[in-house]
Amino acid sequence: MGFRSRGGATDPLGRPQSHSAGLRRCGRRSAARARGDTLKILECTIRDGGYAIDFQWSADEIEQIVGQLAAAGFEYIEIGHGLGLGASRTLMPARCSDEEMARVGTRAKLQAKVGAFFIPGIGTADDLRTFRDLGGDFVRIGTDVSKSESAWEFVDLAVRLGYEVGYNFMKTYAAQPFEILNRAAPIAERGATTIAVVDSAGGMLPDQVAAYVRVLKAGLDVKVGFHGHNNLLLANANSLAAVQNGAAVIDTTLLGMGRGGGNAQTETMLVVLEKTGYATGINPLEVAKIAERYVSPKPTRLKGADELELIYGFALFHSGFTKRVQDVAAAYDVRYQDLILEVSRFAKENPSEALITEAAAQLRRDGRVKIHFPKFIHRNWS
Q1: Distance between CA 117 and CA 198 in Å, rounded?
Q2: Interaxial angle between packed helices 235-244 and 266-275, expressed in degrees from 0 to 180 and rounded to the nearest 10
Q3: What is the distance between the alpha carbons of residues 363 and 333, in angstroms, rounded to a whole number?
Q4: How far apart, in whole angstroms, are the C-alpha atoms of residue 33 and residue 277?
């Protein structure tokens, strides 16, 4: 018995089995289906969910959320600043420093592993050393696709420090699957044990996610992960597609809170996985209670995709560049929404100010953009 009632299912006394009873018992079922045994959910409410509240988690909230997620059965819990180790110092201060989060998280983790994100250029080697000294178990190093070589030295260091190391291809859609595979190979050779596909703009479709995962799964002897955003409300569907095509790790957050359109929702993803035969042994009703206690009261925006989230998802445009586009659009008196759509035709990874300015000038003058930047072009899904 799982989440499905299966018609005339009954309990041990012969009484009709309800859906809620199946949900409750899910958390106690130690004999998970074989194909769900190796699947891990990386719970990143503290890290990615922090974007939705300007990284203002209190130490007590971090301790309670980590402790209760660990008690619920999550094996991997990501903490820290949304932009990774060092970001609170170099970019946007969080309510708690990296060191305080590490101390609180490792104190509360029970049997779980606690980790952090790391972007070269934002964090430093010393940040990796400090987090490890304070009890961090894993680190995920992320770069844009074209900058994957910049991760090599930090993968080497993290492995030497004893971390379980993952690597995230931020804006994976900026390159075709086999280029991602070629770039992933030297990272795996250096000791990364998980390579993750990342839908940073929340605009990929399930078949596209599946294609990337299949290529990485076939070409690498490491685990494949998936981190999705929800701009088109497909984060759960994309996560399922990743799992069905061989992904061993998927990222989720409570109530789907996160940057931009949010992430795959932990509670509903648990139900989806159970219904499709990937039992995790984690009770979604207990997890929903954690979300109700600590996430529901937060003043985050209502769920759903507004105009801007739809544009991000359609254009595969990362929300981190929005202000850059808005400033140029204001200077040229064009709609920034139109400018995002035009710029994204040529650069989905890291649109330069020169490109944005040229596009705005043409949009203002001609009402359309006709420019050619060969190094930026990405048309594999168009």
Answers
A1: 13
A2: 40
A3: 10
A4: 7
The b-or-e profile of 299-337 (16+ CB within 10 A means b, else e) is ebeeeebeebbbbbbebbbbbebbeebeebbeebebebe
What does each C-alpha distance from 32 to 28, 43, 168, 250, 280 come to in angstroms?
Answer: 10, 19, 28, 17, 7
d(CA 167, CA 192): 7
For residue 223, report the phi and psi dihedrals to the nearest 5 degrees: -75, 150
CA distances from 238 to 87, 205, 229 (A): 28, 7, 9
Closest by Cα among 192, 185, 180 to 154: 192
Distances (CA, A) of 268 to 193, 254, 277, 302: 27, 9, 14, 17
Residue type, 377: I
Q: Which CATH number fits domain 25-294: 1.10.287.1490, 3.20.20.70, 1.10.10.60, 3.30.420.10?
A: 3.20.20.70
Helix H, strand E, coil C: the string for 284-326 is: HHHHHHHHHHHCCCCCCCCCCCCHHHHHHHHHCCCHHHHHHHH
Structural tokens at position 243: 């799992």
Mean pLDDT by 10-residue block, N- to C-terminus, for the chain (382 residues)?
Answer: 36 39 45 60 95 92 97 97 94 94 96 97 98 98 97 98 98 96 98 97 95 98 96 95 98 92 92 90 90 81 63 82 92 91 86 91 86 44 34
| H-only helix segments in 320-382 | 322-332, 336-344, 353-366
